[in-house]
Amino acid sequence: GEGRRGRKLTVATTGTLRNLVVPIMFADHVNRTVPTRAELELLWNADRGHPSYYGSTNASVRSFFAAQSYGALDLNTTVGPWVVVSGSESYYCGGVSGPGSDNWMELLREALNLTDAYVDFSEFDQDGDGYIDAIAFMHSGYGAEYGGYDSYGTYYDDRVWSHKWLIFDDDNYYYDPWVGAEGVYVEDYHIESALAGVSGGNVSAVGVPAHETAHFLGLPDLYDTDYSSSGIDTWGLMANSWGWDYTGELPPSLSGWSKVELGWINVWELNSTWFNNSDKITTYVDEIHDPWWPYVMKVAFPYTPGEYLLLEYRMALENDRGQPADGLLVWHIDETVENNDDEGYYGDGTFPSSHYQVALIQADGAFDLEQGYSADSGDVFIEGDRLFNSLEAHPSSMGYLGGVGYTSGLAMTVFREGEWLAESWTTSWGDHDNYLMLNISFTNATSTANATIDGSCQDSCGGQGSNGTASCWCDSSCSFWGDCCDDFDDHCDYGSSTASPTPDEDVFCSDDNDCGSDEYCYCSGEEEARRRRKLRANGSKGGSTKSGRSGRKPSSTSAAKKGRHSGNSGGFGGHSSAKTHHHAGKRSLLFTADSCYCVDNA
Fold first, then answer.
1. Which of 178-182, 470-474, 590-594 has the lowest mean pLDDT?
2. Domain end point (choices 192, 219, 246)
3. Phi (first) and psi of residue 67, to 5 degrees
4. What are phi and psi of 573, to 5 degrees?
5. Nearest-5° angle of CA 282, CA 288, CA 289?
6. Selection from 15, 186, 206, 17 nearest residue 116 by Cα
7. Quick check: is 464 in a domain?
8. Do 407 and 302 touch, CB atoms closer than 8 A?
9. Residue numbers of the domain that contains 574
10. What is the pLDDT of residue 276?
11. What is the mean predicted confidence (pLDDT) over 499-522?
12. Which of 233, 262, 377, 523 fits a disulfide with 596 by CB distance 3.0 to 4.6 angstroms?
């Protein structure tokens, strides 16, 4: 895929977006069975979906984005006629799955020239800037992202890998948009197969076209493009096109972060003034599918600039109906990081210096996604789960702080109080079960009672220090990090980081009765696992199978679900051979079964 970082959104993300689809028939495929133009129209435009390859009726690309945007975007697609190009599939793919081959741009230009005879491109330039607003190519081969050989014996490196990219000159050296008879330019494009799987003539599933369209709207990939970990896996379309059932017919929702990026969801920000009269508040978060006022909760004030938490309550509804559990997703965002390639987890020697741009704080504290396992029920926070204000106990609200790490001061407990809103609030689903209650506490993260971070704001801070000078010390005189410096990642230099024991590792416990009135007995390792199994039916840790651009199609076999992670590491300039990464088994947690100690109660 192609990311958004460092540039504006490609197109408008609200209103009606006219989209042109150009179906391409390779010269050696003229006798193959391919979807009709009418079938492609259903794939892209149908209100309720199309009869799918897997025998069910699900969303079209249009209805998927209508739901994800809560009606803000109407993707109105026109499918052009099939055009037959002069070369074969392997001629254009060049042994590198398309982009980067010597003949790749020749394919796109020839297809556009042929389509120009049938289509008025000016109809797809609604904003009048001289560039087409949205365009997709669909081809007659099978997608390379499925890997292996197709039913005609064509290996994946001579099939097209679905992607979003730019049009260059025929030598792939210079950016060189195509221009049609009406003077309208085509610069960005995306391409995917018109077909499902690697055999037969059935129409494509929704997932891959939706993923590539989301790239066109400006979103980056959220899987690990060097294939050493899972990114956010099935908790978001930009990491997984295939969904919980592996078919692609029910692609997962966009993550809350992606919806914020596209302007499709409200952001309700919790700030420090909420804690003016108390160190603890009780609030709630509604289910994210609710169309009336969908929102995520943002918590930024305890963190350095560009770093924050997003809280998203997601239930197993609509396209997410196959997800393993309802619950709260707690996203840890760091906008100063470029992508999800640099995974890190507690105990690996690189964390927190290494971490994702968009990380899911997993409720079981196991960092499974960073270790290459699949999304599972242990990732979501349910009733009784806690987020700890700690550097050692996980899941933790700790901040990254340029790789040093510090306690943010935040702790949280999830609970449900069924009648709390009953008299004053009715959800769009007609009951009072579609929200979660949160107890959130905040204790000054930079006070001597919790953590002391030694560091200095450099002169480039421009007098943003709490003492009004060009430099300041981040010590107990600051109420939280925002008082010290306005741009930590670029302009601040930090020394050592120390924290009082949180949890108090000197106070071991067997249950809550061994702790103080404001403390809770936290058990890591197998003891904590046993506690959590009483709250949820945990599935086995699965594998993650994905790769490049749109992401490799995962296998639904048992072998693929036992930790096998495979992918293709090549970029647009070419591919290395496909590689596999095997996990012998789930890594054990970092504490022994008797590591139980008292922590602050949220």
1. 590-594
2. 219
3. -70, -45
4. -80, -5
5. 145
6. 186
7. no
8. no
9. 221-448+531-602
10. 66
11. 56
12. 523
